[in-house]
Amino acid sequence: MEKRLKKHLPGGTFKNVPPARSRTMKAIRGHNNKTTELRFKMALVRACIKGWRMRPKELAGRPDFFFPAQNLAVFIDGCFWHGCPKCGHFPKTNASFWKAKIMRNRERDAEVTRKLEAEGIEVVRFWEHEVGTSLEECVHELRKRMNR
Fold first, then answer.
1. ∠ CA(129), CA(109), CA(104), 5° rounding?
2. Is the dihedral of CA 22, 56, 71, 35 positive or negative?
3. Domain chopping of the chain, boundaries
4. Stated pTM of the model
5. Over the stretch 44-63, which tens digit does the pLDDT of each residue have?
6. Angle, CA of 42, 107 and 129, to the nearest 5°
7. Alpha-carbon dihedral sign for residues 52, 56, 61, 64
8. CATH top class, domain 31-146
């Protein structure tokens, strides 16, 4: 955990976190989760979109999908973790920590986007709820970006 976030926790640690909350947070997957990455991956396969790699280690931020031929990076941002303006929220428990954490995630997203764009890589970001409710529109937007 980043030093700047520890100051928002009493004693700098997660003490007295209810077991149910702890289990819930541990169960959230960072990648390969069914509602976002795998759903988007299957949409790419169904749409016959090829030439992508998942989470390339050599790129800043390890995009969820990278299209080397088009120099195009795709991130699918979780609504909670990345602070979606439409459906994201700050939990009431440890509110100052969560607000700092989510705001730091947003700052890091902007830093990663700047780094990739400086390398000549176009960045596309989709929200988790967009992949869940408007998957075809996301694929259509991706195709437009790929054909530029």
1. 100
2. negative
3. 31-146
4. 0.81
5. 999 999 999 999 999 999 99
6. 30
7. positive
8. alpha beta
